[in-house]
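Session log. Operator J.P. requested a structure for one protein chain; no other inputs attached. Running the standard single-chain path with C-alpha coordinate output.
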Amino acid sequence: MKAIVRTKYGPPEVLQLKELEKPTPKDNEVLIKMYATVVGPGECAARKGAPFYIRFFTGLIRPKKTIPGAELAGEIESVGKDVKRFKEGDQVFGSTVTGVGTYAEYISLPEERALAIKPANMTYEEAAPVCDGALTALPFLRKAKLQSGQKILIYGASGAIGTAAVQLAKYFGAEVTGVCSTTNLEMVKSLGADKVIDYTKEDFTKTGQTYDIIFDVVTKTSFSRCKSSLKQKGIYITTSLPLPLLVQWLWTSKIGSKKAMFGSTGLRPSSEKTKDLIFFKELIEAGKLKSIIDRRYPLEQIAEAHRYVDKGHKKGNVVITVEHNSKP
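Structure written below.
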Protein backbone atom coordinates (compact mmCIF):
# COMPACT_ATOMS: atom_id res chain seq x y z
CA MET A 1 0.00 0.00 0.00
CA LYS A 2 0.98 3.65 -0.43
CA ALA A 3 1.80 5.49 2.79
CA ILE A 4 3.48 8.68 3.93
CA VAL A 5 6.50 8.01 6.11
CA ARG A 6 8.62 10.36 8.22
CA THR A 7 11.72 9.18 10.07
CA LYS A 8 12.81 12.55 11.45
CA TYR A 9 11.39 15.91 12.49
CA GLY A 10 11.57 18.85 10.17
CA PRO A 11 10.00 20.73 7.22
CA PRO A 12 7.31 19.25 4.95
CA GLU A 13 9.99 17.52 2.89
CA VAL A 14 10.51 14.94 5.65
CA LEU A 15 7.17 13.42 4.53
CA GLN A 16 7.99 10.77 1.95
CA LEU A 17 5.67 8.56 -0.10
CA LYS A 18 6.61 4.89 0.34
CA GLU A 19 5.25 1.47 -0.59
CA LEU A 20 4.57 -0.57 2.56
CA GLU A 21 2.94 -3.87 3.37
CA LYS A 22 -0.82 -3.70 3.80
CA PRO A 23 -1.72 -4.28 7.49
CA THR A 24 -3.61 -7.37 8.63
CA PRO A 25 -6.21 -6.78 11.37
CA LYS A 26 -5.83 -8.60 14.67
CA ASP A 27 -8.77 -10.39 16.28
CA ASN A 28 -10.06 -7.18 17.89
CA GLU A 29 -9.26 -4.87 14.97
CA VAL A 30 -10.91 -3.50 11.86
CA LEU A 31 -9.06 -2.88 8.59
CA ILE A 32 -10.13 0.48 7.16
CA LYS A 33 -9.72 1.41 3.52
CA MET A 34 -8.87 5.10 3.79
CA TYR A 35 -10.57 7.72 1.63
CA ALA A 36 -9.85 10.94 3.50
CA THR A 37 -7.80 12.46 6.31
CA VAL A 38 -6.84 16.03 7.24
CA VAL A 39 -3.85 18.29 7.79
CA GLY A 40 -4.14 20.78 10.64
CA PRO A 41 -1.79 22.69 12.94
CA GLY A 42 -1.58 19.64 15.21
CA GLU A 43 -0.23 17.45 12.43
CA CYS A 44 2.23 20.18 11.42
CA ALA A 45 3.45 20.55 15.00
CA ALA A 46 3.95 16.77 15.26
CA ARG A 47 5.91 16.83 12.00
CA LYS A 48 8.20 19.57 13.32
CA GLY A 49 8.49 18.12 16.81
CA ALA A 50 7.73 21.61 18.11
CA PRO A 51 7.03 22.88 20.67
CA PHE A 52 9.62 20.55 22.15
CA TYR A 53 7.43 19.16 24.94
CA ILE A 54 5.34 17.19 22.41
CA ARG A 55 8.39 15.01 21.81
CA PHE A 56 7.83 13.44 25.23
CA PHE A 57 4.79 11.86 23.58
CA THR A 58 6.01 11.42 19.99
CA GLY A 59 9.73 10.61 20.49
CA LEU A 60 12.60 12.74 21.79
CA ILE A 61 15.12 12.34 18.97
CA ARG A 62 12.96 11.04 16.13
CA PRO A 63 9.29 10.04 15.74
CA LYS A 64 8.35 6.76 17.43
CA LYS A 65 5.73 6.07 14.77
CA THR A 66 6.67 6.54 11.15
CA ILE A 67 3.21 7.03 9.55
CA PRO A 68 1.61 10.33 10.69
CA GLY A 69 -2.03 11.37 10.64
CA ALA A 70 -4.85 11.24 13.19
CA GLU A 71 -8.26 11.72 11.55
CA LEU A 72 -9.93 9.36 9.13
CA ALA A 73 -12.91 8.54 7.00
CA GLY A 74 -13.12 5.29 5.09
CA GLU A 75 -14.74 1.91 4.60
CA ILE A 76 -14.18 -1.20 6.69
CA GLU A 77 -12.68 -3.82 4.39
CA SER A 78 -12.40 -6.65 6.92
CA VAL A 79 -12.82 -7.33 10.64
CA GLY A 80 -11.12 -9.55 13.21
CA LYS A 81 -13.04 -12.51 14.60
CA ASP A 82 -13.74 -10.80 17.95
CA VAL A 83 -15.09 -7.53 16.51
CA LYS A 84 -18.69 -6.77 17.52
CA ARG A 85 -19.35 -3.10 16.70
CA PHE A 86 -18.59 -3.10 12.98
CA LYS A 87 -18.90 -5.28 9.91
CA GLU A 88 -17.35 -5.38 6.46
CA GLY A 89 -18.63 -2.55 4.27
CA ASP A 90 -19.41 -0.10 7.09
CA GLN A 91 -18.54 3.49 6.21
CA VAL A 92 -16.84 5.05 9.24
CA PHE A 93 -15.18 8.20 10.50
CA GLY A 94 -13.04 8.76 13.54
CA SER A 95 -9.65 9.38 15.10
CA THR A 96 -6.73 7.11 15.91
CA VAL A 97 -6.30 8.84 19.31
CA THR A 98 -2.58 8.08 19.11
CA GLY A 99 -2.28 10.69 16.37
CA VAL A 100 -0.60 8.42 13.85
CA GLY A 101 -1.35 6.11 10.97
CA THR A 102 -3.95 7.75 8.72
CA TYR A 103 -1.61 9.05 6.01
CA ALA A 104 -1.94 5.75 4.18
CA GLU A 105 -4.24 3.71 1.95
CA TYR A 106 -5.13 1.37 4.83
CA ILE A 107 -5.07 1.41 8.61
CA SER A 108 -5.85 -1.32 11.12
CA LEU A 109 -7.34 -0.19 14.44
CA PRO A 110 -8.89 -1.77 17.53
CA GLU A 111 -12.67 -1.43 17.37
CA GLU A 112 -12.60 0.34 20.75
CA ARG A 113 -10.89 3.36 19.21
CA ALA A 114 -12.83 6.53 18.44
CA LEU A 115 -14.85 5.22 15.50
CA ALA A 116 -18.47 5.61 14.42
CA ILE A 117 -20.65 5.13 11.37
CA LYS A 118 -20.21 8.06 8.96
CA PRO A 119 -23.14 10.49 8.58
CA ALA A 120 -25.26 9.39 5.62
CA ASN A 121 -25.42 12.90 4.16
CA MET A 122 -21.66 13.50 4.17
CA THR A 123 -18.93 12.44 1.78
CA TYR A 124 -15.72 10.95 3.15
CA GLU A 125 -13.96 14.26 2.47
CA GLU A 126 -16.55 16.12 4.55
CA ALA A 127 -16.61 13.58 7.37
CA ALA A 128 -12.87 13.43 8.14
CA PRO A 129 -12.65 17.11 9.24
CA VAL A 130 -15.40 16.58 11.83
CA CYS A 131 -12.94 14.34 13.68
CA ASP A 132 -10.55 17.27 13.96
CA GLY A 133 -12.45 20.53 14.45
CA ALA A 134 -15.67 19.48 16.18
CA LEU A 135 -14.07 16.70 18.21
CA THR A 136 -11.65 19.29 19.58
CA ALA A 137 -14.10 22.17 20.06
CA LEU A 138 -16.85 20.33 21.92
CA PRO A 139 -14.86 19.37 25.07
CA PHE A 140 -13.68 22.97 25.46
CA LEU A 141 -17.25 24.27 25.31
CA ARG A 142 -18.24 21.67 27.88
CA LYS A 143 -15.31 22.56 30.13
CA ALA A 144 -16.37 26.21 30.04
CA LYS A 145 -19.93 25.04 30.88
CA LEU A 146 -21.48 26.96 27.97
CA GLN A 147 -25.19 27.48 28.52
CA SER A 148 -28.09 28.80 26.47
CA GLY A 149 -28.29 32.59 26.57
CA GLN A 150 -24.62 33.12 27.41
CA LYS A 151 -22.36 35.32 25.31
CA ILE A 152 -19.26 33.67 23.84
CA LEU A 153 -16.49 35.21 21.75
CA ILE A 154 -14.57 32.80 19.53
CA TYR A 155 -11.17 34.12 18.46
CA GLY A 156 -10.03 32.36 15.29
CA ALA A 157 -13.58 31.59 14.17
CA SER A 158 -12.65 30.76 10.58
CA GLY A 159 -10.29 27.81 11.22
CA ALA A 160 -11.06 24.13 11.65
CA ILE A 161 -11.81 24.36 15.37
CA GLY A 162 -13.35 27.82 15.09
CA THR A 163 -15.90 26.97 12.39
CA ALA A 164 -17.01 23.95 14.43
CA ALA A 165 -17.12 25.96 17.67
CA VAL A 166 -19.35 28.62 16.12
CA GLN A 167 -21.88 26.02 14.98
CA LEU A 168 -21.83 24.06 18.24
CA ALA A 169 -22.16 27.21 20.36
CA LYS A 170 -25.20 28.27 18.32
CA TYR A 171 -26.68 24.79 18.69
CA PHE A 172 -26.36 25.13 22.47
CA GLY A 173 -28.20 28.45 22.34
CA ALA A 174 -25.36 30.91 22.94
CA GLU A 175 -24.97 34.39 21.47
CA VAL A 176 -21.84 34.04 19.35
CA THR A 177 -19.31 36.67 18.34
CA GLY A 178 -16.69 35.44 15.89
CA VAL A 179 -13.31 37.10 15.40
CA CYS A 180 -11.55 36.57 12.07
CA SER A 181 -9.95 38.39 9.14
CA THR A 182 -11.76 40.50 6.54
CA THR A 183 -11.98 37.77 3.91
CA ASN A 184 -13.68 35.34 6.28
CA LEU A 185 -16.38 37.57 7.78
CA GLU A 186 -19.22 36.41 5.54
CA MET A 187 -18.30 32.75 5.92
CA VAL A 188 -18.37 32.99 9.73
CA LYS A 189 -21.72 34.80 9.55
CA SER A 190 -23.08 32.02 7.36
CA LEU A 191 -22.27 29.51 10.10
CA GLY A 192 -24.60 31.33 12.50
CA ALA A 193 -22.43 33.88 14.28
CA ASP A 194 -24.58 36.71 15.65
CA LYS A 195 -21.74 39.20 15.34
CA VAL A 196 -18.35 39.18 13.63
CA ILE A 197 -15.30 41.29 14.35
CA ASP A 198 -12.51 41.90 11.85
CA TYR A 199 -9.36 41.70 13.95
CA THR A 200 -7.41 43.62 11.29
CA LYS A 201 -9.64 46.65 11.88
CA GLU A 202 -10.95 46.37 15.43
CA ASP A 203 -9.65 45.19 18.81
CA PHE A 204 -12.46 43.35 20.57
CA THR A 205 -10.95 44.17 23.98
CA LYS A 206 -11.57 47.88 23.34
CA THR A 207 -15.25 47.67 22.33
CA GLY A 208 -16.58 47.68 25.88
CA GLN A 209 -18.42 44.41 25.29
CA THR A 210 -18.10 41.65 27.88
CA TYR A 211 -18.55 37.90 27.49
CA ASP A 212 -19.27 34.88 29.64
CA ILE A 213 -16.67 32.90 27.69
CA ILE A 214 -13.74 33.89 25.48
CA PHE A 215 -12.53 30.89 23.50
CA ASP A 216 -9.21 31.50 21.76
CA VAL A 217 -8.78 28.57 19.39
CA VAL A 218 -5.54 29.87 17.84
CA THR A 219 -3.68 31.06 20.98
CA LYS A 220 -3.24 34.61 19.68
CA THR A 221 -4.51 36.40 22.79
CA SER A 222 -3.84 36.08 26.52
CA PHE A 223 -5.87 35.95 29.71
CA SER A 224 -4.40 39.25 30.94
CA ARG A 225 -5.38 40.99 27.70
CA CYS A 226 -8.90 39.51 27.69
CA LYS A 227 -9.67 39.81 31.40
CA SER A 228 -11.43 43.18 31.09
CA SER A 229 -13.68 41.70 28.39
CA LEU A 230 -14.90 38.92 30.65
CA LYS A 231 -17.99 39.18 32.82
CA GLN A 232 -17.75 38.40 36.51
CA LYS A 233 -17.23 34.64 36.76
CA GLY A 234 -16.25 34.72 33.08
CA ILE A 235 -13.96 32.07 31.60
CA TYR A 236 -11.02 32.41 29.23
CA ILE A 237 -10.15 29.14 27.54
CA THR A 238 -7.64 28.22 24.85
CA THR A 239 -6.44 25.16 22.97
CA SER A 240 -2.75 25.55 23.84
CA LEU A 241 -0.89 25.99 27.12
CA PRO A 242 2.04 28.41 26.88
CA LEU A 243 3.94 29.00 30.11
CA PRO A 244 2.27 32.38 30.95
CA LEU A 245 -1.17 30.77 30.67
CA LEU A 246 -0.07 27.86 32.84
CA VAL A 247 0.83 30.33 35.59
CA GLN A 248 -2.48 32.19 35.13
CA TRP A 249 -4.41 28.94 35.07
CA LEU A 250 -2.90 27.79 38.37
CA TRP A 251 -3.27 31.25 39.94
CA THR A 252 -6.91 31.88 38.92
CA SER A 253 -7.91 28.41 40.06
CA LYS A 254 -7.21 29.63 43.60
CA ILE A 255 -8.33 33.27 43.55
CA GLY A 256 -10.53 35.66 41.57
CA SER A 257 -13.91 35.21 39.90
CA LYS A 258 -12.56 35.23 36.34
CA LYS A 259 -10.85 32.02 35.33
CA ALA A 260 -8.24 30.95 32.78
CA MET A 261 -8.73 27.37 31.63
CA PHE A 262 -7.10 24.80 29.40
CA GLY A 263 -8.19 21.34 28.35
CA SER A 264 -6.27 18.50 26.70
CA THR A 265 -8.87 17.06 24.35
CA GLY A 266 -6.44 14.64 22.72
CA LEU A 267 -5.94 12.67 25.94
CA ARG A 268 -9.63 11.90 26.45
CA PRO A 269 -10.66 8.22 26.47
CA SER A 270 -11.70 6.73 23.13
CA SER A 271 -15.11 5.88 24.59
CA GLU A 272 -15.82 9.58 25.19
CA LYS A 273 -14.74 10.51 21.70
CA THR A 274 -16.92 7.78 20.20
CA LYS A 275 -19.95 9.18 22.02
CA ASP A 276 -19.15 12.60 20.61
CA LEU A 277 -18.84 11.19 17.08
CA ILE A 278 -22.30 9.62 17.40
CA PHE A 279 -23.62 12.98 18.66
CA PHE A 280 -22.05 14.76 15.68
CA LYS A 281 -23.58 12.22 13.30
CA GLU A 282 -27.02 13.12 14.65
CA LEU A 283 -26.34 16.86 14.34
CA ILE A 284 -24.99 16.51 10.81
CA GLU A 285 -27.90 14.40 9.61
CA ALA A 286 -30.25 17.00 11.13
CA GLY A 287 -28.47 19.79 9.22
CA LYS A 288 -27.03 21.43 12.35
CA LEU A 289 -23.33 20.92 11.66
CA LYS A 290 -21.24 20.99 8.48
CA SER A 291 -17.60 20.92 7.47
CA ILE A 292 -15.86 23.89 5.87
CA ILE A 293 -13.19 22.76 3.41
CA ASP A 294 -10.55 25.16 2.15
CA ARG A 295 -8.45 22.90 -0.05
CA ARG A 296 -8.12 19.25 -1.03
CA TYR A 297 -4.83 17.54 -1.85
CA PRO A 298 -4.16 13.96 -2.94
CA LEU A 299 -2.04 11.84 -0.60
CA GLU A 300 0.91 12.21 -2.98
CA GLN A 301 0.92 16.00 -2.42
CA ILE A 302 0.83 15.92 1.36
CA ALA A 303 4.04 17.94 1.72
CA GLU A 304 2.40 20.75 -0.25
CA ALA A 305 -0.64 20.55 2.04
CA HIS A 306 1.62 20.89 5.08
CA ARG A 307 3.34 23.90 3.52
CA TYR A 308 -0.04 25.56 3.03
CA VAL A 309 -1.20 24.89 6.60
CA ASP A 310 2.14 26.13 7.96
CA LYS A 311 1.28 29.59 6.56
CA GLY A 312 -1.52 29.86 9.12
CA HIS A 313 -4.22 31.29 6.84
CA LYS A 314 -6.44 28.34 6.01
CA LYS A 315 -10.23 28.64 6.12
CA GLY A 316 -11.78 25.67 7.84
CA ASN A 317 -10.06 22.43 6.91
CA VAL A 318 -7.43 21.08 4.55
CA VAL A 319 -8.41 17.60 3.42
CA ILE A 320 -6.19 14.81 2.07
CA THR A 321 -7.91 12.46 -0.36
CA VAL A 322 -6.77 8.88 -0.78
CA GLU A 323 -7.51 7.43 -4.20
CA HIS A 324 -7.90 3.71 -4.92
CA ASN A 325 -8.49 1.88 -8.18
CA SER A 326 -12.22 1.91 -7.50
CA LYS A 327 -14.20 4.10 -5.13
CA PRO A 328 -17.84 3.64 -4.06
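Operator note: The two ends are 19 Å apart (CA to CA).
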